[in-house]
Design goal:
The structure holds 2 protein chains of 2 kinds. By secondary structure, chain A is of the alpha/beta class. In chain A, 41% of the residues lie in helices and 20% in strands. Classes of the chains: A alpha/beta, B alpha+beta.
């Protein structure tokens, strides 16, 4: 009886409380993607977007969203994570016109955000790992994020974003990490979002 | 750059690179290794370690180095290249991990440096290209 209750509890927990983390380095379009998903499913955006790196410095959460594909429904909370990087240099922000003090404050908040995002790698139930399709995908941040998720057997969907960019080459992402399903999108233009939703539901809904 | 060997106490104009053997690394716990790495990279040194890092170790390296970022230390660049173990090695590694609860390493290479003095140029499964920047360009700070 206790086992049955535990299984039922775990079933409902799984059905109602799935947390999907949006991970990746800064400026790959994580918040643009989270906003697109949130807008499509609830009509509301999640966070602000900027060309200056580390615009998202705290985890942004949108709760109780629902995706449907075929006969499956997936209920989930979406967590837009701060971008993970190995360095934060405040002068990168001053180059975008910020005053030195403001830039130093932003850099300090960014380091806290990175640590928080890394700690949450073990808390999420599934991940959208976002790549900039115009950049080299084979970086230690990407390898580390994927390696840790794989070690915890957390389901992953790779999102090759910015396919609207001039030099976009999503095939290099697939070549570098062929072990996970990949969807090519432009979060900015809304391209292939239905394909992404189908892939997520197929991967996660039971 | 100096065109002759430096005299005693003469400041060096260049990037110090330290090669660390697998024997030395094996004698340290991971936390000790991490402390050793962070201590040196904060002094603008580049370390070449004769082993790769596990995903968990890379995660710790990123976390702890980011926590150390301040006015003079903007963080790290690193690259880690694994040896692809043969079937027998894979079997022995699995045995060591599951039965002996010990992480067996099959070599590899890790390069880690202060991002003031090191910039990754290109990395793939079989090679790493890096640019070591001189101290002149290493004057940029972190937070």
């Amino acid at each position: 009886m206790r086992n049955l209750l535990a299984r039922l509890f775990s079933f409902f927990k799984k059905q109602q409380d799935i947390s999907i983390g949006v991970y990746g380095p800064p400026n790959v379009g994580k918040t643009t993607l989270a906003n697109r998903i949130s807008s499509d499913l609830t009509g509301e955006e999640l966070g602000s977007v900027s060309e200056i790196p580390h615009e998202t410095r705290e985890i942004q959460k949108k709760e109780r969203m629902e995706l449907q594909a075929n006969a499956n429904t997936l209920s989930f909370n979406l967590l837009d994570m701060p971008g993970i990087s190995t360095k934060v240099d405040y002068r990168d922000f001053t180059e975008h016109g910020m005053e030195a003090d403001a830039a130093k404050g932003r850099a300090k908040e960014a380091t806290k955000g990175i640590v928080e995002a890394i700690k949450f790698l073990e808390e999420v139930d599934a991940c959208l790992v976002v790549f900039d399709a115009t950049e080299d995908p084979y970086t230690q941040v990407n390898i580390t994020v994927l390696g840790n998720l794989e070690a915890k057997q957390i389901p992953i969907v790779i999102v090759a974003n910015k396919i609207d960019g001039d030099n976009a080459d999503p095939a290099t992402i697939e070549e570098a990490f062929p072990q996970h399903p990949m969807v090519e999108i432009s979060a900015k233009e809304g391209t292939n979002m239905e394909q992404l939703y189908d892939t997520v539901v197929h991967k996660l809904a039971h | 750059m100096l065109s002759r060997p430096p005299r005693d106490n003469e400041p060096l104009d260049g990037v110090p690179i330290e090669f660390v053997s697998q024997d030395m690394l094996r004698s340290k716990s991971f936390q000790d290794k991490l402390a050793y790495i962070l201590d040196r990279v904060q002094d603008n040194m580049i370390l070449v370690l004769e082993e790769s890092l596990t995903p968990e170790e890379k995660k710790e390296l990123i976390t702890q180095s980011v926590e150390h970022i301040d006015d003079t230390f903007p963080g790290i660049e690193f690259s880690s290249m694994e040896n692809r173990p043969r079937a027998f090695e894979k079997m022995m590694n699995t045995f060591a991990r599951r039965v002996l609860r010990k992480e067996q390493r099959s070599g590899g290479l890790t390069i880690v440096g202060n991002s003031n003095v090191m910039e990754k140029v290109k990395e793939n499964r079989n090679s790493i290209s890096l640019l070591a920047k001189t101290q002149d360009s290493a004057s940029r700070g972190g937070v």
